[in-house]
């Protein structure tokens, strides 16, 4: 493994944290409007990580999660994922569709997918501004399963290129409901170099 | 009661009964168990990708069906498994998303299963049982005493293959 991908310099780390902050911040604002609820968020975690680190974010690899994934492409490639526990998915669907609505009904999953679409869309819009690049993103796809099984999908894709991925992780907390959602941006070595270049900090990660 | 030995992603391990061996959250990855039905030894590898020869970044042998199964077999033979009686059980190789990340190598899960089967056929190790494909994740536990592979999935009863 080369040094370049094992550690990030402080400048790069801070810039990417800010990117995550603005992305998730915009996403939080959109969600707040939709849900008419206060949304707070933490300071994003930025790291070069291997699979175990990604898994740790959501507990153990056999914990069941609702994941909504979208791929983005703007010269660099990444996956944006929104992850919820089953309990939080239930609360979120309850907020949108009224109490007693089943999160895993067709309409429940569709609501989660739409919320994720809004979050991802806002995140991407701020990425576009930040990098001054047109970014396309795929229609989000929902998957409910073991965290390990779901998160291994982008990891496998990227492991063809490198052993480690760039992870920017933000946590959103929805008002009094204590809903804790993870918004992740996962990218890999080649792409992440392009991203840094676009941010004007290419070459600072040695 | 023995311990349960864990196998991570792109990882392998060997166990002796009364211990059991497990890997958690197989998506498109495939879990391959090799045992002999005679001794109390079994080994498991959790492979991620089909073919080490098609990828430059192939230093971790356990990632790939071809090199991963070789590494597991080598390690099992050192532990004294009966070479003439080798058998296997496999699980995993799902397609977790229907259209997301349709990668350059197509359906990774399906390709992993094909690669594992080809490799086991090359090595003349019969597959006694399999639970592969579809669109859900699996957690598996193998008991080298009973040779049972227990599969658990979200929203389903556990079953034994």
Present the secondary structure layout.
The complex is a heterodimer of chains A (206) and B (161).
Chain A: H1 3-6, H2 10-35, E1 39-41, E2 45-49, H3 51-56, E3 64-73, E4 77-85, H4 86-97, H5 106-131, E5 136-137, E6 141-146, H6 147-159, E7 165-174, E8 179-188, H7 189-198
Antiparallel strand pairs in A: 1-7, 2-7, 3-4, 3-5, 3-6, 4-8, 7-8
Helix pairs in contact in A: 2-5, 4-5
Chain B: E1 4-7, E2 11-16, E3 20-26, E4 30-35, E5 41-47, H1 65-78, E6 87-92, H2 108-122, E7 127-132, E8 138-143, E9 148-152, E10 159-160
Parallel strand pairs in B: 1-3, 6-7
Antiparallel strand pairs in B: 2-5, 3-8, 4-5, 4-6, 8-9, 9-10
Structural features, described:
The complex is a heterodimer of chains A (206) and B (161). With 206 residues, chain A is an alpha+beta fold. Chain A is 47% helix and 27% strand. In chain A, strands 1, 2, 3, 4, 5, 6, 7 and 8 form an eight-stranded antiparallel β-sheet that branches. Chain B has one domain (4-160): 2-Layer Sandwich (60s Ribosomal Protein L30, Chain: A). The mean pLDDT of chain B is 90.
Task: Summarize it.
Chain A has 206 residues and is of the alpha+beta class.
What is the CATH superfamily label of chain A?
CheC-like
Amino-to-carboxy terminus distance of chain B: 22 Å
Average pLDDT for all residues of chain B: 90
Approximate helicity band of chain B: 10-25%
Looking at the structure, the CATH topology of chain B is 60s Ribosomal Protein L30, Chain: A
Structural class of chain A: alpha+beta
Query: Which percent band covers the strand fraction of chain B?
Result: 25-35%
Q: What is the CATH third-level topology name of chain A?
A: Chemotaxis protein chec
What can be said about the biggest beta sheet of chain A? Answer: 8 strands, antiparallel
How does the overall form of chain A come out from the CA principal axes?
Answer: globular
Q: How many strands appear in the DSSP assignment of chain B?
A: 10
Q: CA-to-CA gap between the ends of chain A?
A: 14 Å
Number of domains of chain B: 1
- Uncertain stretches of chain B: none
Question: What proportion strand of chain A?
Answer: 25-35%
Question: What's the number of domains of chain A?
Answer: 1
Could you name the ranges of chain A where pLDDT drops below 50 across 5 or more consecutive residues? 1-5
């Amino acid at each position: 493994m080369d040094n370049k991908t094992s550690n990030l310099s402080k400048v790069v780390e801070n810039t990417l944290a800010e990117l995550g902050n603005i992305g998730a911040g915009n996403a939080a604002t959109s969600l707040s409007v939709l849900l008419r609820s206060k949304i707070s968020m933490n300071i994003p975690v930025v790291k070069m990580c291997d699979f175990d680190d990604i898994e740790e974010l959501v507990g153990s690899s056999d914990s069941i999660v609702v994941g909504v994934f979208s791929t983005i492409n703007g010269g660099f490639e990444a996956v944006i994922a929104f992850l919820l526990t089953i309990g939080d998915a239930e609360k979120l669907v309850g907020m949108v569709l009224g109490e007693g609505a089943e999160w895993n009904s067709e309409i429940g999953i569709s609501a989660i997918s739409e919320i994720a679409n809004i979050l991802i869309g806002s995140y991407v819009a701020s990425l576009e501004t930040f990098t001054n690049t047109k970014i396309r993103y795929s229609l989000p796809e929902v998957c409910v399963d073991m965290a390990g099984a779901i998160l291994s999908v982008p990891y496998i894709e990227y492991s063809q290129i490198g052993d480690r991925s760039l992870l920017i992780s933000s946590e959103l907390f929805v008002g009094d409901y204590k809903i804790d959602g993870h918004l992740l941006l996962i990218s890999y070595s080649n792409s992440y170099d392009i991203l840094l270049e676009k941010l004007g900090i290419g070459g600072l990660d040695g | 009661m023995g311990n349960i030995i864990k196998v991570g992603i792109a990882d392998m391990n060997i166990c002796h009964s009364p211990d059991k061996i497990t890997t958690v959250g197989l998506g498109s990855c495939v879990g391959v168990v090799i045992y002999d039905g005679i001794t109390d030894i079994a080994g498991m590898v959790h492979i991620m990708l089909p073919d080490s020869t098609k990828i430059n970044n192939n230093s971790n042998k356990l990632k790939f069906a071809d090199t991963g199964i070789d590494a597991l077999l080598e390690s099992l033979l050192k532990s004294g498994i009966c070479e003439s009686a080798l058998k296997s059980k496999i699980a995993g190789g799902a397609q977790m998303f229907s259209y997301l990340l349709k990668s350059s190598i197509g359906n990774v899960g399906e390709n992993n299963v094909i690669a594992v089967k080809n490799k086991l056929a090359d090595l003349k190790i019969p597959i006694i049982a399999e639970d592969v494909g579809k669109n859900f994740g699996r957690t598996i536990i193998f008991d080298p005493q009973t040779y049972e592979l227990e599969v658990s999935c979200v929203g389903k009863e556990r079953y034994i293959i």
